[in-house]
């Protein structure tokens, strides 16, 4: 799903996840139309491991600024929901981004 990684009001990244597989990734768009690079890939987000088939994540404009720069993580089987913002130190055009804690 589209994601505003830098708070620029541009959907310049994608959130990819696999419920039941425990995988979450953030992929950023580079300068050229064909270039993308991985910013984050882990087995979950904070306390959400995405191992249940019903777990979901959606991008969200928490601050009502036109920036979908937060994530809502929902684990219905565990009765959990959390709004979180991902903070990264990343180079403008990759490679080698360094994720900071959520």
Give a short summary of the structure.
With 102 residues, this protein is an all-beta fold.
SSE map:
Elements (H helix, E strand, L loop, with lengths): L1 E2 L9 E6 L4 E7 L6 E7 L13 E5 L9 E6 L4 E6 L2 E2 L8 E2 L3
Antiparallel strand pairs: 1-2, 2-3, 3-4, 5-6, 6-7, 8-9
Q: What features would you highlight for this structure?
A:
mainly beta; four-stranded antiparallel beta sheet; 102 residues
Fraction of residues in H or I helices: under 10%
Mean pLDDT: 76
Strand content: 35-45%
Q: Give the spatial strand order of the biggest sheet.
A: 1-2-3-4
**What string gives the helices and strands in order?**
EEEEEEEEE
Number of domains: 1
Written account of the structure:
By secondary structure, this protein is an all-beta fold. The protein has one domain (2-87). The chain is 0% helix and 42% strand. The chain contains no helices and nine strands. It has strands at residues 2-3, 13-18, 23-29, 36-42, 56-60, 70-75, 80-85, 88-89, 98-99. The strands form three sheets. The chain has a four-stranded antiparallel sheet, with no helix packed on it. The radius of gyration is 13 Å and the shape is globular. The chain starts with a strand and ends with a strand.
């Amino acid at each position: 799903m589209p994601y505003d990684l830098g708070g620029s009001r541009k959907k310049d990244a994608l959130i990819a996840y696999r419920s039941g597989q425990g995988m979450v990734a953030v992929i950023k768009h580079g300068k050229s139309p064909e270039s993308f690079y991985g910013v984050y890939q882990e087995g979950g987000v904070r306390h959400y491991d995405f191992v249940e088939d019903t777990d979901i994540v959606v991008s969200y404009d928490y601050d009502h600024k036109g920036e979908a720069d937060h994530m809502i993580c929902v684990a219905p089987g565990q009765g959990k929901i959390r709004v979180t913002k991902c903070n990264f130190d990343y180079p403008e055009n990759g490679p080698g981004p360094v994720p900071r804690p959520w």
